[in-house]
Design goal:
Elements lengths: L2 E4 L10 E4 L12 E5 L3 E4 L4 E2 L11 E3 L4 E11 L4 E5 L7 E5 L3 E3 L2 E3 L97 E6 L2 E4 L2 E3 L7 E2 L2 E2 L7 E11 L2 E3 L13 E11 L2 E3 L3 E4 L16 E7 L2 E2 L25 E6 L6 E8 L6 E4 L1 E8 L2 E7 L8 E8 L2
Parallel strand pairs: 3-7, 4-8, 5-6, 7-9, 7-10, 8-11, 9-12, 10-13, 11-14, 12-17, 13-17, 14-18, 17-19, 18-20, 19-21
Antiparallel strand pairs: 1-2, 6-7, 15-16, 22-23, 22-24, 24-28, 25-26, 25-29, 27-28
Length: 415
């Protein structure tokens, strides 16, 4: 950390003050107050108000659907030794962002792990950590198992009995879903779920994602973890584990001897590794980190980049079967109603819109049924140019669909 002396005139020369350098964290106004965790505590993200990410907080954070994040603006954060902080998901399952106008001290544990396999034949998805994705279902009465949720959710079609691990920073065991995301963790996203098994066991869920950006110091002598949930084995029929999540730390100084963990669970069919990003001006830490992080040195006084910059590539699903998709889709599988309800059909048209994405890109649409099947991926074809500056393109995919709920996701692979 850089220190300097400020000398005001000759009279004050002997009493020169020492000021501490700091980075700038946009939106870090301290409006959610100080966070002090002295015992095991769960923060309920569903209590967040809905608004713009830089709106003043009231203690429960702000959910911004455009950023897909629950944002807290603390004046300081302390998690004491022996205390564990966990989170209950927002209905959107969005990641967590802490913008801190001061120091962060973690002596205990901040836990964003995905859930492990739910009780056999329960027909209940394992829940991802905030920003992570659910595990697939196992066989149940009248229903067969399904793939894991998320861009890298594990498949079921490699074996009659087993489920593959979820992918994220690396590919899950026996999965065909590619790694996704990027080393910067911009945008912030968590891990994907493992697939269910023929024995009725669900797949583990993906680890969650968190950004901790502090204007001053992050001191870590405890643990920040976003581990994928564990699959399970019964009669040698194994469900897949979830992949690790995403952890991004941004601060003026970083110190301590703690742990930063975002690996996929290794129970039975392993989940892929998550992603870790560290950005700081000075580093006095000697941490245990898994997987290996991406590291960026910041200049003193730098401004943290929180979100994709203006002009960054964007993608959204416009419609499914002619039904417009809401701006904040949930894929809730009935808990809040379907984002789009279609008449019974064998196939349907999905319209995708990209902004600032080259026409030579691959636009890949993934359908994951809640029950009875693995995921399917379809390459969308370019159908129209809606605007040149910025470049706005429309793409069309024509997937086969099943009766019942399916989650639809789209990803872009640029040339």
């Amino acid at each position: 950390m850089k220190n300097w002396k400020i000398i005001i005139g000759l009279v004050l020369a002997l009493g020169a003050t020492v000021a501490q350098a700091a980075i700038t964290v946009p939106g870090a106004d301290g409006s959610d107050g100080a966070l002090l965790i002295t015992e095991n505590t769960q923060i309920d993200l569903s209590l967040a108000t809905t608004g713009a990410w830089d709106d003043a907080g009231t203690g429960n954070g702000v959910y911004d659907s455009n950023k897909w994040a629950v944002v807290f603006k603390y004046s300081s954060v302390v998690v004491t030794n022996g205390a564990t902080l966990t989170f209950a998901n927002h209905p959107s399952r969005a990641p967590v962002v802490w913008l801190v106008n001061g120091d962060v001290t973690i002596l205990g544990t901040v836990n964003l792990d995905g859930q492990g396999s739910m009780p056999r034949y329960s027909n209940i998805h394992a829940e991802g950590g905030p920003g992570g994705f659910r595990g697939g279902l196992g066989d149940a009465t009248g229903l067969s198992r399904s793939a894991g949720l998320g861009v890298g959710g594990g498949r079921t079609d490699f074996s009659y009995t087993h489920g593959a691990g979820g992918s994220y920073g690396t590919v899950g065991e026996n999965n065909t879903a590619a790694a996704y995301g990027n080393p910067s963790l911009i945008p912030l996203i968590g891990g994907s779920g493992g697939a269910g098994s023929n024995s009725g066991d669900c797949g583990g869920a993906g680890g969650g994602a968190i950004l901790i950006a502090a204007t001053q110091a992050i001191t870590l002598n405890g643990t920040i973890r976003a581990i994928g949930g564990a699959g399970i084995s019964y009669n040698a029929e194994d469900s897949g584990s979830g992949s690790g999540g995403g952890i991004r730390l941004v601060s003026d100084s970083l110190s301590g001897t703690g742990s930063i963990i975002a690996y996929g669970n290794t129970a039975y069919w392993d989940g892929g590794e998550g992603r870790i990003r560290v950005e700081r001006v000075t580093n006095d830490g000697n941490f245990s980190i898994s997987p290996d992080p991406s590291v960026l040195g910041l200049e003193s006084g730098a401004t943290a980049l929180l979100w994709p910059p203006a002009g960054a590539p964007e993608v959204r699903i416009v419609s499914v079967g002619g039904v417009s998709i809401p701006g904040d889709p949930r894929a809730s599988f009935g808990a809040y109603g379907a984002d789009a309800a279609l008449p019974q059909t064998n196939s349907t048209q999905i319209v995708v819109e990209t902004t600032n994405v080259e026409s030579a890109s691959q636009v890949l649409v993934r359908l994951t049924p809640r029950h009875s099947g693995t995921y399917a991926q379809y390459a969308a074809t370019l159908s129209a140019t809606n605007n040149l500056d910025p470049l706005v393109l429309r793409w069309i995919a024509q997937p086969t669909v099943k009766i019942g709920y399916s989650a639809v996701q789209v990803r872009v692979v640029r040339p």
